[in-house]
Design brief:
Chain B: It is found in: Cell outer membrane. The complex is a heterodimer of chains A (about 475) and B (about 1050). Chain A is mainly α and about 475 residues long. Chain A has a domain of about 190 residues: Serine Threonine Protein Phosphatase 5, Tetratricopeptide repeat. In chain A, about 50% of the residues lie in helices and about 5% in strands. Chain A is built from 18 helices and six strands. Chain A has a two-stranded antiparallel sheet. Chain A has a two-stranded antiparallel sheet with strand order 2-3. With about 1050 residues, chain B is mostly beta strands. Chain B has nine helices and 59 strands. In chain B, the strands form 14 sheets. Chain B has a 22-stranded antiparallel barrel. In chain B, strands 10-16-17-13-14 form a five-stranded mixed β-sheet. In chain B, helix 7 runs antiparallel to helix 8. The chains are: A mainly alpha (about 475), B mainly beta (about 1050). Chains A and B meet through helix 1, helix 2, helix 4, strand 2 and helix 17 of A and helix 1, strand 30, strand 31, strand 32 and strand 33 of B.
């Protein structure tokens, strides 16, 4: 019997030994991340705000030559989750962090950059979808069902956020900055330029607030040259390559898209010096665009495909540019938001075009000739249309921004309705919101669009 | 530290051996039937009042160790009276059993390897014998269970018959996540059944295929918590207990068996295709400047009629081609898909040597398999080595070992959408000649592809890269998938009969493998950059186990107590690497040849599980039995330990009746709880390493939120049933009703991404499965020369999702998007598990008629239509075995009723104009592709939808019947948007195995040195007797790698039918 006891004892000692908690500590993932690492990661998502086919179809920059489908504006959700779970959650972590490391640059500056990027991402999101979760968003398990804020309140909060960023920037650069190399002055200018462009975006719904914010942004200091442009510079490496390189070069899809007929015709009519950059010539050595939304596509040999420079592995993605700021100032002068009237408008308009040509072609030598073009030369009677049209050309391949400006201004007015379907005026919400966040989703739809999630509801500023 | 304890423990065991020898008694003997005098194999020989027992071997012999001379041996066999014999001084017994009406149970292996009398079990078990598993030499042991066990659903895959995935589901889906594969246990050692395959790419199969089917003595499936409660946190989804063959103790004897099988494998079940229209997007010919017509290099068959028109085929644009610049007739190639496949071969050779003497036994086996696949350039080589040995160190102490080694080496075809050759059923030209494509490489090294952009007007092609699809032979010979695996599993142990009533044992069990997977993508195809990836995955699982078994009889009562402990330790690592940006030297497939910094991932998983458990059975008059068990598990992945209890009872009521036809009758009932723990590292917060930008490193917040408060999931089951045997066992019925509640599943709850996380680990959900299982066995005819045995089983299960998470009544399980259109698989509260949701026809609510738009095309809903569950209503199988003299014939049929799946292959075959209906004759006697004006088109009838206007006139509600353009209808509407068309019922009845054998015994073999020779013709998958889904799809082969369900077919490998000869020789 004694032996039995020893056995049982041995048996108990085997299991009474509790488990070492270290076994469940994940050795494969870091338990900490620095502010600089999180910021840099958030910046990696920036090209996605522009680099997509949907964006170019919304602005009708590109037509589908083959596999026609997405350009016919089929009903269907576009997922916005990735923006929240990706860059925004990283930025929110930096903004709320109490453990940022001063060795990566002044903590105030790290937080300022996080706020600017947060504002920029949210601005893009709300412009595309309308009301979205904002004030209750990014709270993790504290709130898995965040309510949707109105676009108006999101705009107001973003104005405040951008102003905070502008005011908290101190001397001293930050590390790990893959956009501006740590130059805080350029971040400040970006912050104010975003605020300026956002202010103009509400010109139709709340011009007085727009004017007020516009002038505050201007006073705080906006971009002053193309060197201040907010550009994501891709690298000639597989892990950092341009989306269009991957589509066109790696996946052999050059003949999937041509420039749209309306765009090519606009550019051809004025011998636009940007056209040879934007497009290749067809089989007959001519520039020819395919009518947008042609249900059967077109023969790739007959149409102008996307210019080679735009799908290099390291081709940059232009997000917020000096020329946009100048177009905004031109429009603001014309609207009387800032002083100077037509003269100021014309000066800004001409400079905007010049800077746009410089941005796209690397030279301004052809700008004067181009500006002399009767259709291009500033005309006080059609100034708003001219500004919008030129801005549309300038924003080539930054389709979502061009689409937002089209929704606001109605220009260019030659966009087509493929198969009778008009250009959508918003994107449909993430399909799974209906299941994951039902009450808030339904409330947001009810509030804005009479309960229907479609492509043709109008967002708050779209009057 | 723990290992030290274990070593001490084992040492103690060994030490005691020395002090307490001498009482154990070894006896042996032969059991024959008193009626026939023929030796009886499979007779249970039990030491009365204990759980110690053996069964007699094929020649009726047995060896058993009994505690002392006072021990009494019980001999039990189906259809015979029980015989009791006191051991006394006798050491060899020749027992003659008298036939009897009273049918008694057998010894079965239960949880933790505890052998028990079946009559004492309060839950259902169903055992499959080894010979029924190797009927037709199926390579994957799990696959050979198909249709043989009630309530066990096997979903196979073709794997083009090279050990592809076999998925097992016991009593339906028991998790709201759809996960949950049973534990596989071989001779008491839990082994990994992982799967490295995904939906696309090579199907490496599940790792249980490393078990040599020839080594399997029997498989016992523990179907639910009642049977598997002793496995605690590992037992929620049931256990598949595999017992291997062993040598026999007794008079010195050696058996040698040779086993050889050769089969030819042919691809079957081709999808029908049209052979009228060829490659192109329109029936109008494309022409060069010189007027020559040419075949458009597009990947669809909506082109011109294949009427023999002389045209430039794609190869005629290759300057290297002998037919360069030449015109050849444009004709159909009806067999182009068939022509791609080859006749495969499967050669399987095995030898086993078993034997023993008075105090030892061993069995050694070796098996070699070589398969040449039906897909070009694919093969599998497998070696299995097995050794099991047992040695009595003394009368009381036995040392034993089971060691298995398996080695696999394969080059496999890819399945799925974008890899391999599946596209020829999805995106292809009906005019492509496979024999021509076979010469895929020109002498100058350039590759010949068919899916190339158009030439210019002069007939010059400048971009030679395939648009979407490589030449299938380029895929087969240049883009290779290779994998190999070395694996050891087995155990060593000591068993010590401490006292006559007390036995203790200690085992060390191990399962370890190294899996290597590599793949190559060659330059010169669709991909600009060549690429190479390689991964090494190593898993080591150790189990240190202790078990004490105590049995006692006291008057009419019997007691049986088991107490044990187990320590489980797992260490899994991998290192995977892939080149980036191409290779520096073409053809040099090595990570060092990466143009850019390669992608590298290394990973370590550690897990430990400490368990103690106990079980007690009380029997009264060998008629009433009650069982209790309790297990405590502490998993390293969870903060706290948990307990898992069970209770069960059985009542052998036939003991109280004296009704002649009923030989045996038992009622049983049980209640039990088992569980499943959380994956590792799910309870603490961490960050993720993000991509690099130049030299700038990044991190990000993960998308899945970990949860420190997580608990294990619990399954509670109730089960009642009856086992009945009539007419001396000629007819048997086993009926079980069960209800299993699976609660607090550990799920990654999908949450609104606006929270910053896409999902969070959480305990949630309640899934209730209710079902009934019936197993019938019968021997309608049994004479000296002819016998007929039938085994039939049927099961019906309904799994309902009762709760998910407060406020959530729908959970996305999987989704898939094609051409911008998504389809989803959901768990919905109140519904059967696994609802397919997608785009359907819009229908008039009153008449059910399809709604049409202004272009007369059907309107479709958004992706919100619920098509119902993927799960079958019922599954089962029927096995018939006949024996006529020296001939035997067996046929195995399995079936499934209900369940649904989506087929991309069918959808795309229609979309791309390959399927017959896209070129059918319409009601006007014209081809549907003929112009509408000439009577062509597809007939459509329906009602114009609300708000539909034609020429500004509101036509909504008006009926329309007429013809529409075939391409717009099939390609742009049905094939792209209306998934209702591509969802199929998965019901089938399949003839899975058939075997016709002939055996020669010693008498007929004369002077040949053989004891027995058997030869058999075997066929696997010879025939799908009936299926609801269209030809070309196989509803029984929907398993895709490691994904939980076969709900979505995106390009499965073709069904393989295999026919062969099997030769068995015993020396």
């Amino acid at each position: 019997m004694k032996k039995l006891y020893i056995f049982l004892l041995a048996c108990l000692s085997l299991t009474s030994c509790e488990i070492d908690e270290d076994i469940n500590v994940n050795p494969n993932k870091p338990s900490d991340a620095s502010g600089g690492q999180l910021l840099a990661n958030s910046m990696l998502s920036l090209p996605g705000l522009s680099s997509s086919t949907q964006a170019q179809f919304m602005a009708q920059y590109l037509s589908e030559l083959q596999y026609v489908g997405t350009s016919l504006y089929p009903e269907g959700a576009t997922n916005f989750y990735g923006w929240y779970t990706g860059p925004l959650m990283n930025l929110e972590t930096v903004i709320n962090s109490e453990e940022l490391d001063g060795k990566e640059g002044p903590i105030a500056n790290q937080k300022a950059v996080a706020k600017i990027l947060k504002a920029y991402y949210f601005w893009n999101i709300t412009d595309r979808w309308g009301d979205v979760p904002f004030s209750q968003a990014l709270k993790g398990n504290a709130n898995f069902t965040p309510a949707y804020d109105t676009q108006e309140s999101i705009y107001n909060n973003l104005f405040i956020l951008l102003n905070e960023a502008n005011e908290q920037i101190v001397t001293g650069s930050i590390s790990n900055d893959i956009v501006y190399g740590g130059d805080m002055e350029r971040w400040r200018k970006l912050s104010n330029t975003i605020r300026l462009l956002m202010a103009l975006r509400i010109s139709e719904v709340n011009p007085s607030k727009g004017k007020e914010e516009f002038n505050k942004a201007l006073a705080a200091g906006i971009m002053t040259s193309n060197a201040d442009n907010f550009v994501f510079k891709h690298l000639a490496l597989e892990v950092n390559e341009n989306y269009w390189y991957s589509q066109i070069s790696l996946q052999n899809r050059l003949t999937w898209w041509s420039l749209s007929e309306n765009l090519v015709n606009t550019l051809k009519a004025t011998a636009d010096p940007r056209l040879p950059v934007f497009a290749n010539t067809n089989d007959a050595d001519e520039y020819a665009g395919l009518r947008f939304g042609s249900p059967n596509g077109g023969d790739p040999l007959k149409y102008s495909t996307l210019g080679e420079q735009l799908w290099q592995q390291d081709a940059p993605v232009y997000l917020v540019t000096y020329a946009q700021a100048l177009f905004a100032k031109a429009e603001a002068s014309k609207r009387g938001w800032i002083e100077g009237g037509d003269a100021e408008a014309e000066a800004n308009y001409n400079e905007a075009i010049k800077q746009s040509i410089a941005q796209w072609t690397g030279s301004t030598t052809e700008a004067a000739d181009y500006l002399a073009n009767a259709e291009v030369a500033y005309n006080p009677d059609t100034a708003l249309e001219q500004i919008a049209t030129q801005r549309y050309i300038h924003l080539f391949m930054h389709g979502y921004e061009a689409w937002a400006e089209w929704r606001r201004t109605g220009y260019p007015n030659n966009l087509v309705s493929p198969e009778g379907k008009d250009v959508p005026t918003r994107l449909m919400y993430t399909a799974t919101e209906a299941a994951n966040n039902t009450a808030n989703y339904n409330e947001a739809l009810q509030r804005q669009f009479g309960g229907t999630d479609g492509l043709y509801g109008k967002v708050w500023w779209d009057k | 530290m723990r290992k030290l304890y274990l070593s001490t423990l084992l040492l103690l065991l060994v030490c005691w051996c020395g002090t307490a020898l001498a009482q154990q008694v070894n006896v042996s003997g032969t059991v024959t039937g008193a009626d026939s005098g023929i030796p009886l194999p499979g007779v249970s020989v039990i030491v009365k009042g204990t759980t110690t027992g053996v069964t007699t071997s094929a020649d009726g012999t047995f060896q058993i160790s009994v505690p002392n001379q006072e021990s009494v041996l019980l001999f039990r066999f189906l259809g015979y009276e029980v015989q009791e014999t006191r051991v006394g001084n006798q050491r060899v017994f020749n027992v003659r059993l008298n036939p009897d009406s009273k049918q008694l149970g057998e010894v079965v292996v239960t949880a933790l390897g505890i052998a028990r009398e079946e009559r004492s079990l309060g839950y259902a078990t169903q055992e499959v014998k080894g010979e029924d598993l190797t009927l037709t030499k199926e390579q994957n042991v799990l696959g050979s269970l198909s249709g043989k066990v009630a309530g066990v659903q096997m979903t196979g895959s073709s794997g083009s018959s090279m050990g592809g995935t076999q998925k097992i589901q016991i009593r339906g889906v028991n998790s709201v996540t759809g996960g949950g594969q049973p534990l596989i246990v071989v001779d008491g050692t839990p082994i990994s059944n992982a799967n490295f395959a995904g939906r696309s790419g090579a199907d490496y199969g599940n790792l249980a295929q490393d078990i040599n089917p020839e080594d399997v003595e029997s498989i016992n499936v523990l179907k639910g918590p009642a049977a598997s409660a002793l496995y605690g946190i590992r037992g929620q989804y049931g256990v598949v207990m595999i017992t291997t063959k062993k040598g026999k103790k007794g008079p010195k004897k050696v058996d040698v068996q040779l086993n050889s099988a050769f089969s030819v494998e042919k691809v079957g079940n081709f999808m029908p295709m049209q052979n009228i229209y060829g490659g192109g997007g329109s029936q109008t010919w494309r022409t060069l400047a010189n007027g020559e017509k040419y075949v458009d290099g597009t990947d669809e068959s909506w082109g011109p009629k294949m009427d023999g028109t002389p045209v430039r085929h794609m190869h005629s644009f290759y300057p290297q081609d002998p037919m360069y610049g030449q015109l050849e007739p444009f004709v159909p190639q009806p067999d182009n898909i068939k022509d791609f496949f080859e006749t495969g071969h499967n050669l399987n050779n095995g030898v086993s040597i078993s034997g023993g003497n008075e105090n030892s036994s061993f069995r050694l086996s070796y098996n070699n398999t070589r398969i040449e696949g039906v897909e070009p350039n694919t093969w599998l080589k497998r070696n299995n080595l097995g050794l099991s040995a047992s040695l009595d160190l003394s009368d009381k102490i036995t040392a034993s070992a089971n060691i298995n080694y398996a080695n696999n080496d394969a080059q496999r075809p890819s399945q799925g959408y974008y890899e391999g050759s599946r596209n020829f059923m999805q995106w292809f030209q009906r005019n492509l000649d496979m024999k021509r494509l076979k010469n895929y490489k020109y002498d100058d090294g350039t590759f010949y592809h068919w899916n190339i952009g158009r030439p210019n007007a002069q007939g010059v092609i400048t971009n030679w890269r395939p648009s979407d699809w490589n030449n299938p032979y380029f895929e087969a010979y240049e883009n290779l998938n290779n994998d190999n695996r070395d694996r050891f599993f087995g155990d060593v142990g000591l068993t010590y009969q401490v006292l006559p009533d007390l036995k203790v044992s200690g085992f060390v069990r191990s399962d370890m493998y190294t899996q290597n997977i590599e793949s190559r993508i060659a330059a010169g195809g669709r991909s600009v950059n060549a690429a190479y990836s390689t991964g090494k995955y190593q898993n080591k699982e150790m189990n240190y186990e202790f078990l004490a078994q105590y049995t006692k009889e006291w008057n009419d009562f019997s007691f049986n107590v088991n107490v044990g402990a187990n320590l489980f330790d797992r260490n899994y690592t991998y290192l995977s690497q892939a080149t980036r940006g191409g290779l520096t030297s073409p053809g040099f497939y090595n990570i060092e040849g990466s143009s850019e910094r390669p992608a590298v991932a290394s990973y370590l998983l550690r897990k430990q599980l400490n368990s103690i458990y106990g079980m007690a059975t009380v029997g009264y008059k060998d008629t009433y039995f009650v069982d209790f068990s309790l297990r405590r598990d502490h998993s390293s992945t969870l903060p706290d330990p948990y307990y898992y209890p069970s209770v069960s009872a059985s009542f052998v009521f036939s003991e109280l009746l004296n009704w002649q036809p009923l030989s045996f009758g038992k009622l049983r009932a049980s209640y039990a709880m088992a569980g499943n723990d959380v994956s590792v590292y799910a309870t603490s917060m961490n960050y993720e390493i993000g991509g690099l930008y130049g030299t700038v490193n990044t991190s990000f917040v993960p998308d899945v939120l970990n949860n420190p408060l997580i608990k294990p999931s619990f399954a509670t089951s109730y089960e009642v049933g009856a086992d009945l045997k009539f007419f001396n066992g000629r007819l048997g019925a086993d009926v079980t009703y069960y209800e299993q509640r699976n609660e607090d599943d550990v799920i990654t709850l999908n949450v609104s991404g606006a929270s910053g996380y896409s999902s969070s680990y959480i305990n949630a959900g309640l899934m209730v499965n209710k079902g009934i299982e019936i197993a019938l066995t019968g021997t309608p005819i049994q004479t000296q020369n002819f016998s007929w045995d039938i085994a039939f089983n049927a099961a019906r299960n309904r799994g309902t999702v009762k709760e998910l998470y407060p406020g959530l009544d729908s959970r996305l399980l999987e989704s898939n998007t094609y051409s911008g259109v998504s389809m989803y698989l959901y768990s919905n509260v109140g519904e059967q598990f696994g609802s397919i949701v997608g785009q359907a026809y819009q229908r008039d609510p009153e008449t059910g008629k399809i709604l049409l738009g202004s272009n007369n095309m059907p309107l479709y809903t958004t992706a919100t239509h619920n098509f119902g569950s993927v799960l079958p209503d019922a599954t089962g199988g029927l096995q018939n075995s006949f024996r006529l003299g020296k001939f035997d014939l067996s046929a195995m049929i399995d079936y499934q009723l209900g369940g649904q799946f989506i087929s991309w292959s069918r959808m795309l075959a229609v979309k791309a104009g390959l399927a017959p209906e896209t070129a059918a004759i319409n009601e006007n006697g014209k081809n549907v592709r003929d112009p509408l004006a000439e009577g062509g088109g597809v007939k459509v009838s329906g009602i114009y939808g609300p708000g539909v206007k034609i020429n500004d006139e509101d036509v909504s509600g008006r009926e329309f019947t007429g013809f529409v353009d075939a391409r717009t209808y099939f390609r742009n509407t049905l094939g792209t948007r209306i998934y209702e068309e591509w969802i199929y019922d998965a019901s089938y009845v399949r003839l899975r195995e058939i075997r016709l054998g002939y055996s020669l015994d010693k008498a007929s073999l004369g002077s040949l040195p053989f004891q027995k020779v058997g030869i058999a013709f075997i066929a696997r998958n010879p025939l799908m007797i009936w299926q609801k889904a269209p030809e070309g799809l196989n509803p029984a082969e929907l398993a895709t790698g490691s994904s939980s369900f076969g709900w979505l077919e995106t390009g499965g490998l073709n069904t393989v039918r295999s026919y062969g000869v099997n030769l068995n020789i015993s020396f």
